[in-house]
Amino acid sequence: KMSQEAVPFVCMPGERLCRLENNVVLGIGTYEQYGYVYASKSGIVSIDEPDEKVSFQGKYATKLIRNSSQLQCQVVSVNKPGYHLTIPATGDVVTARILVTTPKFAKCAIFCVRNVLLESTYRGLLRKEDVRETEKDRVDVYKSFKPGDVVLARVINQMEQSFLLSTAEDELGVVLAYASDARKLKIPMVPVGWAEMQCPLTAIKEPRKVAKVLPESSIN
User: What is the pTM of this model?
Assistant: First the structure.
């Protein structure tokens, strides 16, 4: 059981939490895929023994609760520490994870607005012409972002089902990325320029639209 004194583990939507073992029960804010438990929303991960107050979900819950006398079950949940509903507004700087890239745009999931971690994600769209401030006709989306990258972006418009984003400013762009050949190791690449990042383990370089990271108070 997780210690109450342990440092809280904050997760993002879609983040893999653990393997789905025989004694693991899916709690609120989680889902199962390919034998692993994933977070369906951002929040704090908790691992608890089941009791009357725990909410269960998923196809494994009934079977595991029935066998709880034989196994010491652990419920994996993602809970929110009481955040208020926050909706991105035009001009806000948001944090998002790249989901899909195409020649003309990148789709992403917004999980943080300003400094507020969201209960659930919003859809974001980064068009090719909004990636950089200059030489827009030479932008290559595939060389700017890859699925899984975390970016800082500014909301420039709200559409019917998503938010239009821009990384044109120097301070905006990729802030966290993993090399394609070392993604499983979870070792972040480091910037080696405004258009390139390098894996510290393999020394392999990959193109990105890199954010010029500034003190938090400098980005309004």
Answer: 0.62
